[in-house]
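As promised in the previous annual report, we have extended the structural survey to additional targets. Below is the entry for 2-phytyl-1,4-beta-naphthoquinone methyltransferase, chloroplastic.
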Amino acid sequence: MSAFSSSPALFSCVGRGGFAGRDRSFRCSVDRQALFNRIAPLYDNLNDLLSLGQHRVWKRMAVSWSGAKIGDSALDLCCGSGDLSFLLAEKVGLAGKVTGLDFSKEQLSIASVKQASLWNSCYKNITWVEGDALDLPFPDDYFDAVTMGYGLRNLIDKWAAMKEIHRVLRPGSRVSILDFNKSTDIYITLLQEWMLDNVVVPVATSYGLTEQYKYLKSSIRDFLTGPEQEKLAKDVGFAKAKHYEIGGGLMGALVATR
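The corresponding structure token record, generated without further manual editing, is:
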């Protein structure tokens, strides 16, 4: 059966820096944790509706790019309700182990309920951990593969997050990070913003989640482009990094090898 544990560092968007910086980051982390707790009950249904089910294809691609295989120990950061964690469990099999880490207790509760209701025996090898993506509670060189779905964009200190991923990965292993793409193509950017304004937010509004989904547009605008993500990965020590545009350029996946 799964274990559900808690780390003392709960907020995955906590930043680094002086006292004032920590204070602002703490307020940000509390706000974002509350946001993800609020949307947790509807998160899976909204993902299916807003992406027309395509998010499941993108997530399978991301897990494949992680290189996870039978017998591996894999980590799914910012795991949410567990979609990538379950896909990783299928990759590593009964002989492997998956850890899903998130700062939202509500999301982890939903993931745990899903785990108990699903038939695949390999899902029993998933452990859920409430913790901080900027201060991972794992030793160096611990995992054979790492995934992150729609998490890096929401972290205050992206450099620290990538550094932590690099630390816990074994040499030669890969991280695969799926997120919205901040395109350098103005036409893709305009299409993305139009869809957010005219599809995503109105649909979220019908579920009473207007404010929770309005932040998407600004978070993508403040995110890193593909080339910037590649540079970040190499700056923290990854040997290779490649960013792929998928979903017509609306989504992206960073694949980096330690």
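The first helix runs from residue 19 to 39. The chain has a mean pLDDT of 83. These points will be discussed at the next consortium meeting with the crystallography subgroup.
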